[in-house]
Design a protein that fits this description.
Blueprint (H helix, E strand, L loop, with lengths): L1 E3 L13 H4 L1 E7 L5 E7 L4 H12 L9 E2 L2 E2 L6 H8 L4
Antiparallel strand pairs: 1-2, 2-3, 4-5
């Protein structure tokens, strides 16, 4: 799973809206090389994201493992918590 900062859509003034600044884009990459892009709030629990990914890929959630830079990501975590733990930008 890789993580990148939200590009943010500009409002009429060319500034990113508050809603866009509160969101992050996450790319889930499978072992087969396939990718699924999600755009979620920074406080969105990974649990729901992981379940959706497993459903789309026809995987068993109970046996799937999700990693970021070699670190396992727990379902109860959020993008904001992971950023603080790893020192990366969500």
């Amino acid at each position: 799973m890789s993580q990148s900062q939200s590009g943010g859509r500009a409002n009429g003034n060319g500034n990113a809206s508050a809603d866009d600044r509160d969101r992050v884009r996450l790319t889930m990459a499978g072992q087969d090389g396939s990718r699924v892009l999600y755009r979620v709030r920074r406080n969105y629990r990974f649990f729901r994201l992981f379940q959706d990914y497993c459903k789309k890929k026809n995987l068993d959630y109970q046996t799937a493992r999700f990693l970021l830079n070699g670190h396992r990501i727990q379902g109860k975590s959020t993008p904001e918590k992971v950023k603080n733990f790893l020192g990366t930008s969500p």
